[in-house]
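Just wondering, can you check both lines?
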Amino acid sequence: MDEKLTNAQRAKVLIEALPYIQRYNNKIVVVKYGGSAMINTELQNAVMGDIVLLSLIGIKVVLVHGGGAEISETLTRMGKKTEFIDGLRVTDRETAQVVQMVLAGKISKNLVNLIGNMGGRAIGLSGMDGHMIEAEKMRDELGYVGEIVRVDPQPILDMLDKGYIPVISTIGYDRDGNSYNINADTAASRIAGTLKAESLVSMTDISGLLRDTDDPKSLIPVVNVSEAPQLIREGVISGGMIPKVDCCTEAIRRGVKKVFIIDGRVPHAILIETLTDEGIGTMFV
C-alpha cells in the first residue's frame, strides 16, 4: 500500500471494501490466470497475494491456470516444433505428455507452493484428478486438443469445503486413457458455469474490451452478452478476443452471474475489480 496514505485513509479503503466483502462472502469466484502475469515474478506474487487475501476474507477462490509460453519453451528445448491452427496448439501424443508434465507437474505445484508461502492453503488438481474434466477430440487435425464433454465439480467442492484453494491445470481425460490439452479460457468458463460461480475473472494482456483498440480511454466497462454479436459485426470484438468473449458469454449462459476481463499486467487487478467501486476491466452480464 502507498506509504503516503495516512492511517485514516487506510481505514477508509477497508470500509469501502466492506459491501463487496459481504457480497462475495462464502461465494465462489473462479480466476483464470494467464498471460504476462504468469511469467513476471512481481506480478505473479501480486496475483497470488490477492488470491490468498480473498480466501482469508471468506471468498471461495478457484484458480484455473494456463501455461502456453512455458509449454512452447519446453517443446523448443526438446527440439520439437510447435504448430498452431486457429490459435490452438496442434497436440500429438508426445506433446500431450509434455503439456501434462508442464501444467500439472511444474506450474501447478509452483503456484501451490507460492500460495502456501503467502499464508494460504492450496491443492493442485488437474482435470484428470477425480475424473474431473472428461474430453474428446475437437478436430482430427489438432490431435489431442480436447473439447469438454463433462465437468464433475465434486473434487473442487471437496477442496473448497476443507478450506483449500483449488489450483486447476486444464488437462482432460477420456475413457481410453488419453490425456487432452484444453484451452484454459474454455475450461475456466465451463468450470465456473458448473459451479454456478458468483463471478469469473479472466486475466489477459489487455485492459478489457476497447471500442478503439488504439485508445485505452475507449474501454467499455459493461457489456450485456446479447450485445456481443453486434460488437463482433462492428469489429469491436475481433481476432483473439472473439474466443475469449465466446467463453464469457458461455459462462453467463451456464449460470455465472458476472464475468470480468481484466488486465493482468496491473498489480492487484483482481482486488481492484472485486473489492472497489471503480473496477478496471470489462464486465459481462
Observations:
- The chain has one domain: 25-284.
- The CA atoms of residues 14 and 275 lie 9 Å apart.
